[in-house]
Amino acid sequence: MVASPALAQERAAEVDIGASRLDAAIKLLSRQTGASIGFREPKLAHVRVRAVRGRFTASQALERMLVGMELRARRVAPATYLVERFAAPPVARRTRPAARPVVQAESSSTPGDIVVTATKRDVPMSAYPGGVQIVAGSELSPAEGLRGTEAIEARIASVASTHLGPGRNKLFIRGIADSSFVGPTQSTVGQYWGNSRITYSAPDPNLRLYDVKSIEVLEGPQGTLYGAGSLGGVVRVVPRSPDLRTFEGAAWGGVLAVQHGQPGVDGGAILNIPLKEDVIGLRALAFGSIEGGYIDDVGRGLEDINRVRTFGGRAALRVDPGDGWTVDLNAVGQRIHGDDSQYAERNIGELDRASGIAQPFRNDYWLADLVARKNWGSLELTSSLGYAGQYVFERFEGPALSDAGDPAMRPAVSAPTAAYSQENRISMVTGELRLARRGENGTGWLLAASLLRNEAQTNRRMEAAPSRVPLTGVTNHVEEATLYGEFTAEPIEQFTVTLGGRLTHARLSGSSEDVAELIAFRVDPGARASRSETRFLPSVAAAYRAADRLTLFARYQQGFRPGGIAVRREFIQRFAGDRVSTMEAGARYRSPALDLAVSASATRWIDIQADLVDGFGFPTTANAGDGRVLSLGMIARWRPIAGLELDAALYLNDSKVTERSLVTLPLELGTAEIERLPNVADASGRLGFAYTESLGGDLELSANGYARYVGKSTLGIGPILGRLQGDYLDTGVEARVGDARRGISLALTNLLDARGNRFALGSPFLIRDRDQTTPLRPRSIRLGFDLSF
């Protein structure tokens, strides 16, 4: 058997191959690297080989794939290899042990390492001085892709989220959490799709994770490379690019049954077309899903009210004109429409509540970017221009009209109910030019300049039939101009030092909306005026390769977010920018059989920005004070035999507001003792497994599962928001039977049919008087299929 024509010269390429049979693995490897790989002995087709992921030449990938086996890949011609049995000679007593079989490569290069591309200059993981986790796209099934960001949260214990609903949530990494609410404040997590920023001051759009190459999570802060809004870290999803050689496609679908709820359905298709071989390629994707509801509203006599419909697609055009140039044009679009909120009320039932009105929501998201790259070997120039737009609509049940004047009275469902609605329109334009050089052992440098312009407009109304009363809204503008750079040197062997800095000039302005019909009292007479901030963020890090497989690292880095204009009922006021400083130290061990990582960090947070709700339920933003976060993380992956991988992770967080701000904090919140930051679980952990087994012929069984524990946290700060949540166990398992091109799968989630409380909020206007919870989706089972050609 021989796979793929050989290239004239072997080059390193991104390799993404799971544990599988040899015949399937070398087909995929030859496609990804362009090398010709074959074997003559038919029995070798069924041999199980190890997973290989990272940036490798074909020879390096084969060496890692065959390590510990009595097989070798012998080079028989340039970029052409033959896999054959290798009988190691007997080891004589008291003599040096025989070396393990290795690939007869063209050079003596060592096996490749997993590459962290989110560093913007492709640093090997063994040399990266910080906490990082990477999920290969090949590990994500269509059932996981359907879950979007929830799949990242389930796989990576350091990632947490609120659970107001898809397209309405905020992400957090490693305990850096400001509040449970989405407002004008920039997120603490930078989210990126490929080279482009997804959001600035908007909720997580929950983009579906179909056809992605990898997901990288860099623990924060990441101020040097990513600037404002990366206090907790960065989540970067890398989609698959068009293949310029192969016409191929794929399709998938599934039906979902939900215990205590309505069924659902999902599906999608991918098509890759080389418009001109090796020069122009197009890759397009379309998908849709209807997820049945499972919450009953006894107040209105309705069942399964929280159905969610999601539709979207992507398109990517790649042009490779030669001479080291690559041009990519990408477009992403997705719409999420929820019929009603997904919360329950504890005193009514685990999956029940009593509402006076429907509380629908919607998130429309679109992204377009143009990226041009020029390569001169280890030197790369990247230029990018991107546009992101988002429309978010939410409706919340307000107080009963009979109680509107007295918020202390409990709203009665039988009385007429007011409805609070909010619309957010966000648009962002970004541009960046950077030049980077990659060196040995992670050395190199990066110089870049970037521009950003973000506009966020919020309009609010209180609706009480037959009238709609506008409330004061706000429009915030942010313009940023940035210069940043990073330099890594190796002063002594196996020891690297990284120095970096980011200089940002931000211009901020804000104005009130809908004031023609409502006179707003201005706490700050200059609230309409603009102001400027200039910040410099330094960073320093070091990594020491204590052994071939052991890396010790330490780093210091800062992050910041600019301030803005906030609205609290009829009041308009400023809030200041905040800054974090983090010290981190850790160790990482990687071998073919075992990966271990441990890290500890201490963060100081000044002038914490927080999107809150006041005592009447209205949203506002304030500086909560100063705080600190201590975090300890441990991750392990063990591959005891070919085809089986076990993983475990544990994160411990201890957060505290060390000094309260009584000036800018709303009065209802400033009078309480504030100790811990909101939405920071004291502990979270995960146990998981992945297993593959040949069933004979081309058939293969693959299975994976997890159990994830989320510890206790509070919804917010103060006596009103200080409600406990968390302390639940989420579980799931999935199995697939098929070959590389087609298969059927069965996925189960919430195996124990647990309820839990993922988020202690439904409507902010009812939080004083109702015990709101957000349960896990009840036990669900999805029967699916996938095929490719």
Uncertain regions spanning at least 5 consecutive residues? 2-9, 88-112, 403-414, 516-526, 663-673
First-to-last CA distance: 20 Å
What count of helical segments does DSSP give? Answer: 7
**Class based on secondary structure composition and strand pairing:** mainly beta
Give the helix proportion (percent range).
under 10%
Arithmetic mean pLDDT: 85
What spatial form do the alpha-carbon principal axes imply? globular
- The portion of residues forming beta strands comes to over 45%
Strand tally: 48
Strand-helix topology:
Blueprint: E1 2-3, E2 13-17, E3 20-21, H1 22-33, E4 36-39, E5 48-49, E6 52-56, H2 58-65, E7 71-77, E8 80-85, E9 115-116, E10 123-124, E11 132-136, H3 142-147, H4 149-155, E12 159-161, E13 171-173, E14 189-193, E15 196-197, E16 212-219, H5 223-226, E17 233-239, E18 248-258, E19 264-276, E20 280-291, E21 296-297, E22 308-322, E23 325-338, E24 344-345, E25 352-353, E26 361-376, E27 379-400, E28 417-438, E29 444-464, E30 467-492, E31 495-513, E32 521-522, E33 531-547, E34 550-561, E35 564-568, E36 571-575, E37 578-590, E38 594-606, E39 609-613, E40 619-623, E41 625-638, E42 644-660, H6 667-670, E43 683-696, E44 699-714, H7 718-721, E45 724-738, E46 742-749, E47 772-773, E48 780-788
Parallel strand pairs: 4-8, 14-17, 21-25, 32-36
Antiparallel strand pairs: 1-4, 2-6, 3-5, 7-8, 9-10, 11-16, 12-13, 14-15, 16-17, 18-19, 18-48, 19-20, 20-22, 22-23, 23-26, 24-47, 26-27, 27-28, 28-29, 29-30, 30-31, 31-33, 33-34, 34-37, 35-36, 37-38, 38-41, 39-40, 41-42, 42-43, 43-44, 44-45, 45-46, 46-48
